[in-house]
């Protein structure tokens, strides 16, 4: 079972509340958060980490992120706990975090909006572009392919180092370099596309959180 925690935000939190929530993070992650310039990016980064903390607490794991998170050579964050994996994504007004045991995870959320497809010409192969252009809703079809490729590349761990045009989708799976990734669509909001990729068939459970209402609980459980 994979647990997927998500939250949404449409405006900046009150300054005091934002500061209280930020104080829950280790100092190095607080400093990293402050490097973002836009409030949207600051909030998305903060909420992603808070979702992970809640996910760890849900699994009865000490949520001290400074002791639990390391980074691979391709900058993919992973847990020092060998049997657990997690992945975070955010776009628009949503942040999302997936966590599971004995499974490799990649998740991606994207707000569906008009795009100049020419800027993404190297991300799809000719068959996929044909499917996109001939579909009744090219934007929706594009974002479905995009979240699939993003989630697989994140699960793999190499991100954009993987040539996206080589990722073929067949029967809700992607096979690349001898590895098979299973795909699931996650329904969170109508104008968002969300895909999770795993290295084994897995069910999932959604958990929606509201940090403006959960502050007292979070502060009480600060480690």
Automatic annotation (TrEMBL):
Pfam families: AASDHPPT_N, ACPS. GO terms for molecular function: holo-[acyl-carrier-protein] synthase activity; magnesium ion binding. InterPro entries: 4-PPantetheinyl_Trfase_dom, 4-PPantetheinyl_Trfase_dom_sf, AASDHPPT_N, P-Pant_transferase_sf. Residues 104-195 form the 4'-phosphopantetheinyl transferase domain. The keyword Isomerase does not apply. One of its GO terms (biological process) is lysine biosynthetic process via aminoadipic acid. Keywords: Transferase. One of its GO terms (cellular component) is cytosol. The keyword Transport does not apply. Residues 18-98 form the 4'-phosphopantetheinyl transferase N-terminal domain. Gene3D superfamilies: 4'-phosphopantetheinyl transferase domain (3.90.470.20). Belongs to the P-Pant transferase superfamily. Gsp/Sfp/HetI/AcpT family. This is 4'-phosphopantetheinyl transferase. It comes from Kordia algicida OT-1.
